[in-house]
Amino acid sequence: MKTLVFGHKKPDTDSVCSAISYAFLKKQLGLDAEARILGDLNQETKFVLNKFNIPEPKYLNDVKIKVKNMKYLKNAYINKNLSIEDTFNQIQELNVTGLPLVDDNQNLVGYINLKDICKYMIHGDLYSLDTSYDNILNVLNAKSILKFDDKIKGTLLTAAYRSKTFTETVELTNDTILIVADREQILEYAINSKIKMIVLIGDFKVPAELLIKASKNKVNIISTPELTYTASSKIRLSNYVINACVQYDPICFKESDYRDEIIEIASKYNHTNYPIVDKNKHCVGMLRLVDQHNYEKRDVILVDHNQDTQSADGIEEANILEVVDHHNIGLFQSSSPISFRVMPVGCTATIIYQIYKENKIDIPSDIAGLMLSSIISDTLLFKSPTTTKLDEDTAQKLAKIVNIDIEKYGMEMFKAGTSIKGMDSKEILEQDFKTYKLDDGNIGISQVMTLNIDNIMDNKNEYVRLLNDMNSTYDYKVALMFVTDVIKDGSYIFYNESSKDIIETIYQIKELKQGLFLPNIVSRKKQMVPKIIDFYQKN
Predict the structure, then answer these.
(1) What angle do CA 157, 160, 164 make, to 5 degrees?
(2) Three-state SS for 100?
(3) How far apart are the first and last CA of the chain?
(4) What is the rounded distance in angstroms from the CA atom of residue 105 to the CA atom of residue 87?
(5) Segment 165-174, tens digit of pLDDT
(6) What is d(CA 430, CA 182) in angstroms, rounded to the nearest whole number?
(7) Which pLDDT score is estimated for 332?
(8) Does 404 lie in the same domain as 302?
C-alpha cells in the first residue's frame, strides 16, 4: 500500500508543492510514496503546476479505516447451488458460523448459518430433493451410470418393501427419486415408470437389458457404495444450500464503508458475520465481528501542518510516519514515536531542501521549480517576517537549478494567484481559511491575497455577514479575514462584529473599522495567529 504525503485541508502552494517534492524524495529513498491533496487548488498553485508541467495530485477524501483496510475473510462465500454438505464443510474449514450465498455471477443472494441448516434438516421436508446430479454424486460418493439431467428435483423414496408388495402398492411418477438395492423387479418397475432417478445401493450392477430400457426412458442412474440407511440419511445433504436459507436479504457492507459505521450497525443488530461486497455488488468475502479490531492503518506523511483540525478526516486512525512543518506545534498526538521535523523557517520546502541534501539526492529541475515556488509564495517574495536567511539562500540555489529570475517569476505567480475573477464572496473567504485550537475554543482566520482591494471593498458588507454567520455557526471566539497586498506590504482586516473590542486590544487600534489597512502585517503564522492566541492565553 502506498504511503500518502499531503498538506493541510486548504491547499496552498507550499502544502501542495512540498507534498509533491517530498513524495518524490521518499520514492528515491525506496518508499512507495504518493502526493495527495485535501481540497481544491487555488489559482496560484495551478499556475505553478502548469508552469513546471506537473500533474495535479489526486484528491484524498479521508484516511479513515474502511472495510478494505480490515482483515476480513476474503473469498469466504459459497455458491447457492452447492450442496448443504459442501457448505457445512466450508463453514467448518473456515471455523465460522455461517457463509454468504452467491449466484453464478458472484452476486450476493443470501446468508446461511449452522442454525438455519439444523432447522432445515430437522423441520424441513424429509422427502423433497432439489439439487444437481453432481451434488448427489459427491455427497453419496457415487459414480455415474446414466445421466440425462443436470438438475434433479423430485420426491425421495426408499424401496423398503418386498418387491411384490412394492410394485403392487407403491405408485411411481416421473419425479420420483428411488433408493434401491439389488431388486431387479423393483428396478424394472421404476424404469418402466420413467422415474427421475435411481440410486443403486452397494454398487449393484444393473443388468444390460434394464440399462438399455433405462436409457430409452431417460432415467438417471447412479451407484453408491453406501448402505440403504446411510444413503437415505445423507442424500438430503445434497440439496441446494439455497433451499435451507432463510436470510435472502442479509445486512452487508461495502469495501468502501467506514469501520466506525460498521461498529455502530453491528452493535444494533449483533450479528456474528456480515457479507462484504465490492463496488459492483459482487460478494468478495465476509467480515466477522471479531475482525473489527484487526485492520491495517493507512501510512501517511504530513507536510506544512501538524494539527488534526487542518489534516485529513480520520487522521487519528492513520499511521503517521513523519511530519515536516514550519508552524507552531499544535494539539498533535501519535500512538507511537515518529520523525517530527519542525524548523522556524518561512516555508516547508526550505526544510525539504535540507533533507534532500542530507540524503545526497539530486533535485530535478521541475521539482526545484516547485520548491522555489513554495518559498516565494510562503515568504511573499521574502517580505514576510517569517522569512529567514536559510529561506533566501535556499531559494537562490533552487533558482540556479531552474535557471529562473526570482523577482520576475515571483510577480508572475502573485499576479496569477491574486486573481479572484469568477469567484463569489464565500469562495474567496474560504479558499484559505484555517481553524486554530485554543484550550476552550477555536479561532478562524482567512487570508486572501490580492493586488486589487477595490473588488473586496465593493462587497465589504457581504464579507462581514459571512464572518458573523461563521462565528455564530461554529462558535469561534473570533472570525477574521486578512486581505494581503504584497505590493503595499500590508493587510486589510475584516472581522465578525462581536469581536471588535478584542481586535482593537490585540492590535492596539484606537478606532477599528471594517477594511482597515494594517501596514507590515502580512504573515498569518507570525503576525496574525500568535497575537490572538497570546491574548486568549493571558485572559
Answers:
(1) 105
(2) strand
(3) 47
(4) 18
(5) 999 899 999 9
(6) 88
(7) 64
(8) yes
Strand-pairing partners, residue 102, are: 79, 108
Helices (H) and strands (E) in the chain, counts: 19, 24
* Residue the block writes with cell 439455497: 242
Alpha-carbon distance of 539 to 535, in angstroms, equals 6
Its pTM stands at 0.70
DSSP annotation of 43: H
The SS3 assignment for 10 reads coil
Same domain (yes/no): 285, 305 = no
What's the pLDDT score for residue 101? 96
* Cell of residue 357, nine digits: 541534501
Residue 259 contacts residue 65 (beta carbons within 8 Å)? yes
Q: Grid coordinates 484524498 are at which residue?
A: 60
Q: What is the largest CA-CA distance in the chain?
A: 119
Residue 108 confidence (pLDDT) above 90:
yes
- In angstroms, the CA 273 to CA 72 distance is 10
**Distance between CA atoms of residues 35 and 2, nearest Å:** 10
**Which sign does the torsion angle of CA 489, 494, 495, 497 carry?**
positive
Owner of C-alpha cell 442412474: 221
Domain count, the chain: 4
Cα(348)–Cα(388) distance, rounded to whole angstroms? Answer: 12
Mean pLDDT of the region 361-382: 96
In sequence order, which residues have a C-beta less than 8 Å from that of residue 413 and are 6 or more positions away? 13, 44, 47, 48, 373, 376, 377
In a domain, 238, yes or no: no
Question: Smallest Cα–Cα separation from 260: which of 290, 309, 293, 300?
Answer: 293
372 & 313 share domain:
yes
Angle between helix 208-216 and helix 184-192 axes, rounded to 10 deg: 20
| 253-254/273-277 β-pairing | parallel
Q: What is the DSSP letter of 248?
A: S
- 16 within 8 A of 57, measured Cβ to Cβ: yes
Burial class (CB in 10 A: 0-12, 13-18, 19+), 163: middle
- Phi/psi for 148 (5° steps) reads -125, -20
Cell of 205: 450392477
Asked if residue 117 and residue 253 are part of one domain, the reply reads yes
**Which residue has cell 456480515?**
274
**97-107 pLDDT, tens digit each:** 999 999 999 99
Res. 331: pLDDT tops 60: no
Q: Which residues pair with 282 in a beta bridge?
A: 107
**Single-letter residue type at 360:** K
SS3 of 381-430: the string is CCCCCCCCHHHHHHHHHHHHHHCCCHHHHHHHHHHHHCCCCCCCHHHHHH
In this structure, what CATH number is given to the domain that contains residue 96?
Answer: 3.10.580.10
pLDDT digits (tens, 9 = 90+) for 250-276: 999 999 999 988 888 888 888 889 999
- DSSP secondary structure code for residue 154 in this structure: E
CA dihedral 474, 539, 521, 442 (to 10 degrees): -20
**Residues of the domain holding 275:** 68-122+243-293
DSSP reduced 3-state for 271:
coil
Residue 75 resides in a domain: yes
